[in-house]
What does this fold into?
Amino acid sequence: MRVVLLILSVAAVTVPGCVSERSEATTRPDSLLVKVEELTKEIRALNGRIIRLEVARSQYDEVTIDPSTKNFQRLDTSVGTLLVSCQDIRQYANGYKVLLNVGNVTMATLHGFKLNVSWGRAFTDTSVTDWQTARHENTFDVTDELLPGRWNKVSFVLSPAQAHDLDYVTLAVETNIVSLLR
It folds into this structure.
């Protein structure tokens, strides 16, 4: 009789433990799924914030040249802000010669700079990868000075280029040497 009571008391202690573990095991995956969904939503929200911050930070790192207008655009460099406007684009050899007005609004003279240019067709119903692959890129080492407080003429030749390649022209500037008045 004592053996039966001992077995029954062990079973009474063990069975409720097994039942609660089993019920936790059946509810735990649901709570984990809910947590995964919450974390996924948070990751999406954070990725959206990162993209918005990157766009805001890099908004003026490059400009898009529009040959149909002479309006200027802001272009940020490591030493300050420049203003860039397209004055003229003309056919030249197997490409096009681009004439820019670059306004140096700083008090520094910029002695030479690199002009990073990419050009190609406007984005249409193609994939982003195909569009990026079809674009051309070149870096021009410009030895001219950008004098402070005035518009400076800068020209370069996009080659090879056809008229449709001028649909989307972007440029960025890397400055080399800067001098200030004494």
Remarks:
- The chain is about 35% helix and 40% strand.
- Confidence is low (pLDDT under 50) at residues 1-22.
